[in-house]
Amino acid sequence: MKPRGMLMAEHRLIERMLAIIEKEIIQIEKGRRINSTTIDSIVDFMKTFADLNHHGKEEDILFSILAKKEMTDEDSQMMQELIEEHKFCRKATEDIVQAKEDYLKGKDTIGIVILTLNSLVRFYPKHIQKEDEIFFPNSEIYLTDEELASMIKEFKNFDCTMFQNKYKQIIESLEQANGGI
């Protein structure tokens, strides 16, 4: 498997979350209330899996290797666009967190949650298509077989580290909440 295949498999999981988000938008619109447990799960997925893990691999591994290569202007520009799009996703997720917190304080932020969730649902398919069909295939022409093989190892190590760090943070938070066990 090439690094592209690993990243594209992650895209399929993101697409499944987008379907869940679409259904949650309908539920929010029908009931005019936010299910904070569902929103927390969506935010956790978007922050941890989509951004820290998936975008992290792209930015910290793939893009950093490609930045050292002599790429075409088009490919270089597209990489910069993808980085900006990742920033958009981070900001949208932060906006959802803030709107949910404000909602729990009694403010009417349902419209903000719906609007922001919708923006992610509309945004991601185009972003994923750009990466799957254009950028990932184009990026492989700049990489040697050895670099591709090394990247797969780096991706796997990144996954392990991400998983460990996430649950280390959960344990530390729970320890603090319970008086510093």
Characterization of the model:
It is a single chain. This protein is 86% helix and 0% strand. By secondary structure, the protein is mainly α. It has one domain: Four Helix Bundle (Hemerythrin (Met), subunit A) (Up-down Bundle). The chain is globular, with a radius of gyration of 18 Å. The mean pLDDT is 93.
Tally of helical runs:
5
* Average pLDDT metric: 93
Structural class per helix/strand content?
Answer: mainly alpha
Number of domains: 1
Q: Give unreliable regions as ranges.
A: none
Name of the CATH homologous superfamily: nmb1532 protein domain like
Q: What is the rounded distance between the termini?
A: 43 Å
CATH architecture type:
Up-down Bundle
Helix content: over 70%
Shape: globular
Rg: 18 Å
Total strands: 0
Beta-strand residue percentage: under 5%
